[in-house]
Amino acid sequence: MRDLFEIAIRRTPPGVIIFDPNDRLLFVNGEAATIIPSLAGPERGVAAGSFIPGKIRRICQVLRANSEKAPAPTLMIFTAPNGTIYTLRALLIDEPARTASANHVMVLLERIVERHEADFAKAQLDYNLSVREIELLKLLCRGLPNKEISEMMFICEYTVKDHIKRIMRKMGVGSRGEIVARLK
């Protein structure tokens, strides 16, 4: 369950684009406005609202074509010219009774965020941490509370707190969150 929580908090807000039944652009949120230029590539020098990349238009067409048979979201994963990986999901957002061609389409653009693992060997050298402190740090970075860390390391919670205070002092930070942020 913790892994799912970590995934959820690492997600960036989605870009949202809405097209009317005639594929005219109705809405672009701020996140989509920042993503669209990177989808177009460096050769395009246009504003986000005035240019919709072909990939977005194509996913809308695929959704409408396939939705007559079985209405389901359409998904596309691709790499933008700048190397960032995105998912595009297109969904019909009107009444189910209407035909797919008469529905509005919402496209969600999401950047796939790679998980960055902490370099514990570098942290050990940079902050002069002991092997035991690194062991605790690994558990702390997994988001475990003091009680679980104490059980896994076979030490009492007070010792866990002392280790964390010592690690914070060595790293020059003031909280558990800052420890994790400094490592990632």
Brief summary of the model shown:
This protein is α+β, with helices and mostly antiparallel strands.
What does this structure look like?
The chain has 184 residues and is an alpha+beta fold. It has helices at 2-10, 30-40, 54-67, 120-127, 131-141, 146-153, 157-171, 176-183, and strands at 15-19, 25-28, 74-79, 85-92, 105-111. The chain folds into 2 domains: 12-111, Beta-Lactamase (2-Layer Sandwich), CATH 3.30.450.20; 120-183, Winged helix-like DNA-binding domain superfamily/Winged helix DNA-binding domain (Arc Repressor Mutant, subunit A, Orthogonal Bundle), CATH 1.10.10. It contains 8 helices and 5 strands; from the N terminus they run αββααβββααααα. The chain has a 5-stranded antiparallel sheet with strand order 2-1-5-4-3. Helix 6 (146-153) packs across helix 7.
Query: If helices are DSSP runs of H or I spanning 4 or more residues, what is the number of helices?
Result: 8
Count the domains: 2
Rg, Cα atoms, Å: 23 Å
Return the average pLDDT rounded to an integer. Answer: 81
Determine the CATH topology of the largest domain.
Answer: Beta-Lactamase
Structural class: alpha+beta
Q: Topology as H/E string?
A: HEEHHEEEHHHHH
Q: First CA to last CA: what distance? A: 21 Å
Instruction: Give the proportion of residues in helices.
Output: 40-55%
| Count of strand segments | 5
User: Strands of the largest sheet, in order across it?
Assistant: 2-1-5-4-3
